[in-house]
Amino acid sequence: MNLIGLHTFVAKEISRFLRVFIQSLVSPWINAFLYIFIFGVVVGTRIDTIAGVKYIDFVLPGILMMNLISASFSQSSSSLYFQRFARHIEEILVSPLSYVEMVVGYVVGALARALVVGIGVYVIAIIFSAATMAHVLLFLFYSIAISIMFALVGLIIGLWADNFEQLFIFNTFVITPLIFLGGMFNSVTMLPENIQTIARLNPFFYFVDGLRYSMIGIRESNPWVGFGIIVILLVSLLIIVWILFKRGWRIRT
Amino acid sequence: MSSLRGDSVEPGRIGVLSLGFWNFYTVTMYALDVKNFSKCYDQTLAVDNISLEIPQGEFFGLLGRNGAGKSTLINCTTGISTPTSGVIEVFGNDVVTEYREARKKIGLCPQEFNVDIFASVEDILWYMGGFFGMKRDIRKKRSDALLAQLDLESHRQKEFRHLSGGLKRRVMIARAMIHDPELLILDEPTAGVDVELRHELWKYLRLINQQGKTIVFTSHYLEEVEHLCTRIAIINHGKIVALDTKENLMKNGDSLEKKYLEITKK
């Protein structure tokens, strides 16, 4: 294994998002601050408790989840796409790094960005006395597993995209709607009964619900279902990405 | 008196060196050994069953018009592309099955600037050395030495995009050399470079060739190929149409350019 190569790869990925820290870190922190301020202070004080907790405590896991997903997805997809676009992925292709090391490098880089963003959001929540923690290990599992999952999704999109529009299309048309409809701001029980069934088919519902359970101890689904969905998706995505990189799909001609 | 005779001491093959009744078996490794290599892109056959052997220490010229197959051969040798069929070995290491060892021995200076244009010169060398598994102290020393040799010291902090064309070329060569490769592949390294820098580069390349580096050189400036290379292959429509020493190709007093045009027009 080329450990120095892998370490360099990760360091380069981290330096890439630190180089544009306003866009990669400050921007999501400002967004999170605004969400927490509006829902915690402005709207939240006028809303009665939801599922027995303050409204800001209820929505914070969703805000955190959205930022973790967005950070990891953006990092891996844009990094890979820009490297393909500017052809400096060839620097990596001619080096003695294996495709497994390449995948690990991209994923660890994306995970690092997601965690830095996530820690920042959590600190902002603490300032607003909104951060709670019911199950630390479960919280770490959900945060890390979902960041890795969307880093892998980002790699698939980064390989598939032929232009900038395609790069952002997935985030706009898939990630954002599904996370908003996945119970980020509301309890699924607030929805009409037939819509509730559809909502429960949305995997993002289980991601938000699982993270919410780990933070405030309240859940609307069986946590093992969420755990199972995450593990299945994670393994499936790993296999898909592994095959694509092994074949050099859209990387090696 | 003992006789000294060498039988078929050809690089890459087992030769016998007899010294009286003592027989010494010698194996000289090929820097690049291409056997029946073909490459198809969809339905297009870019390289058609070529074989080529480049001994260690040679300054080898690879000529051909645009799209002839030179860059395809280079890309498949370095890992940017994968061969459709055939075998390519670098110092005895298959570029597909033993890619780690093979790639450690190759330095590539490509035709285009395939580099992170926002990275500084220093960072470009630093990261590339890291990808090749070089330890930090060795990387630093090697990077400093190359920046000095290629007169890039005063530009080390500058972002690549702010450099002139000539400086960019030098950075590409430094990047190719960072891990001290045994085989240096230069794909049109002097394209768009002024005369002074071109001559400096020739001097530098000749020096490192004399130090033992094998160089594969492509260019559309035939006078520099004539000036630098000892053996030359001409690729046309994916096939090697000529492969000989510079002297043999030009034996009738023809210039390389005349010979090249004669061969490629056939």
Number of helical stretches of at least 4 residues of chain A: 10
Name the CATH superfamily assignment of the domain at 30-105 and 181-264 in chain B: P-loop containing nucleotide triphosphate hydrolases
CATH architecture of the domain at 30-105 and 181-264 in chain B: 3-Layer(aba) Sandwich
CA distance, first residue to last residue of chain A: 25 Å
Describe the structure.
The complex is a heterodimer of chains A (253) and B (266). Chain A has 253 residues and is mainly alpha-helical. In chain A, α3 (55-85) runs antiparallel to α5 (99-127) and α6 (136-160) packs antiparallel against α9 (203-216). Chain A has one domain. Chain A contains 10 helices and no strands. Chain A is globular, with a radius of gyration of 19 Å. Chain B has a domain at 30-105 and 181-264: 3-Layer(aba) Sandwich (Rossmann fold). Chain B is 33% helix and 30% strand. Chain B has helices at residues 70-78, 99-104, 121-131, 136-149, 165-177, 195-210, 222-228, 246-249, 256-264, and strands spanning 4-7, 14-19, 22-27, 30-41, 44-55, 59-63, 85-90, 93-94, 106-109, 183-187, 214-218, 231-236, 239-245. In chain B, strands 9-10-11-6-12-13 form a 6-stranded mixed beta sheet, with helices on both faces. A 4-stranded antiparallel beta sheet of chain B has the order 5-4-7-8. Chain B has a 3-stranded antiparallel beta sheet with strand order 1-2-3, with no helix packed on it. The longest helix of chain B has 16 residues, at 195-210. Chain B is globular. Classes of the chains: A mainly alpha (253), B alpha/beta (266).
Descriptive tags:
heterodimer; A: mainly alpha; 10 helices; globular; B: 266 residues; 30% strand
